[in-house]
Amino acid sequence: MPRFTEEQIKRYARHIVLPEVGGRGQEKLLNSKVLVVGAGGLGSPALYYLAAAGVGTIGVVDYDAVDLSNLQRQILHDTSRVGTPKVESAKKTLEALNPDVKVITYNAKLSKDNVMDIIKDYDVVLDGTDNFPTRFLINDACYFAGKPLVSAAMLRFEGQCTVFDFRDKEKSPCYRCLFPEPPPPGTVPSCQEAGILGSVGGIMGSIQATEALKLLLGIGEPLVGKLLIMDALSMDFRKVKLRKDPDCPLCGRNPKIKELIEYDHSCEVRF
Amino acid sequence: MVRLLYFSYLKERLKKAEEELPFTGTVGELRKLLKEKYPQLADELERVRFAVNDEYAKDDEPIKDGDKIALIPPVSGG
User: Fold this and answer.
1) Interval A17-64: pLDDT, tens
2) Is A2 domain-assigned?
3) On the CB side of A130, how many CA atoms lie within 13 Å of its CA?
4) Which of A158, A192, A235, A269 best probes binding to B when mutated, by most B CB atoms within 10 angstroms?
């Protein structure tokens, strides 16, 4: 029998009562480690739900400080934290929510020199970053390390989410099967330029947390090989089937990419 | 006729979420036709991914009358 404190039995009662989770599942979550890259619009709700769920160890990577313009959607942070590192703000909020959770902070920019070391101890990685170079770096690193990756992105009123389960590299497609190379800087608008409805981050980040919990618990059908596209204006959710691309430069039959690549982080121009 | 569904900034810049076109051929041929039709979006259309009847399709795959084609651009916002 799993051993919980009385407080834990109370805290996780609504999980434990679910046959798909139960005491055993809750114990699994408490022993799990999840890394979230980006404590922003997607990372905020994702981190909140992972911590509330009792994921025992949560890593947070972000090198930014809280800005007033973040608070319209980045609900982990508050007005008093403007100017402080996002990872510190995230740690305070999450540990106040659930003292069972150990939050490990990485106040650093992910690079090819640190990424493998950072991800190595985690069971699942969530990508909530705001730029293509980091998205490709995380994809490649998770592929090489054989870690499941829950990837989401958003713009204006729309969001996308998919799971690359690199525990089974033969089966799972990767980000490069979909987009082989990052688009040239300045050709795709960012949230800063094009805007984002704050609650869209709430939807997509919550979906990421849900997919991560499913992967940790081994329940349901994670979005592996499926890209979910959500349009908040029509509230349409569409799932597109993805396939592993035999010509993929990373996971295809004759891969060209055999080590981590760092792409140019130059600023994206305004539309 | 095929039905085209535009997403994200393609939808914004074309100012429409969908349209119908008479077309049969491959995904690559449709991409070329759309680049001619919307030269201002030629770069974006080069990078966009096509899903035919909700299944991701590469440029050499066929499109037939009645197909529903989603055009999915890469987005990076977080």
Assistant:
1) 999 999 999 999 999 999 999 999 999 999 999 999 999 999 999 999
2) no
3) 27
4) A158
List chain B domain ranges: 2-72
Q: With the C-alpha atoms ordered A102, A106, A112, A113, is the resulting torsion angle positive or negative?
A: negative
Q: Which residues make Cβ contacts (< 8 Å) with residue A167, sequence separation at least 6? A: A146, A147, A148
CA distances from B70 to B4, B27, B64 (A): 6, 11, 14
Q: Is B55 helix (H, G, I), strand (E, B) or coil?
A: strand
CB A76 within 8 A of CB A46: no
The residue with tokens 């592993």 is A244
CA separation for the pair B10, B5 (Å, rounded): 10
| Interface residues from chain B to A (CB-CB < 8 Å) | 7-9, 12, 17, 43-44, 47, 49, 51, 54-56, 58, 70, 72-78
Q: What is the ipTM for the molecules in this complex?
A: 0.92
For residue A270, name the pLDDT band (cuts at 50, 70, 90).
Answer: very low
Report how many domains make up chain A.
1
- Of A161, A166, A150, A164, give the one whose Cα is nearest residue A229: A161
Tokens for A256?
């060209």
Instruction: Give the other-Cβ count within 10 Å of A244's Cβ.
Output: 16
First to last CA, chain B: 36
Residues of chain A with Cβ-Cβ distance to B9 below 8 Å are 155-156, 188-189, 194, 271
Q: What are phi and psi of B5, to 5 degrees?
A: -115, 120
Alpha carbon distance A66, A83 (integer Å): 5
Residue A203, H or E segment = helix A198-217
Burial of A113 (0-12, 13-18, 19+ CB in 10 A): exposed
Can you point out the beta strands (E) in B1-78? Answer: 2-6, 18-21, 25-26, 49-52, 55-57, 62-63, 68-72
Domain B2-72 has CATH 3.10.20.30: yes
In a domain, A254, yes or no: no
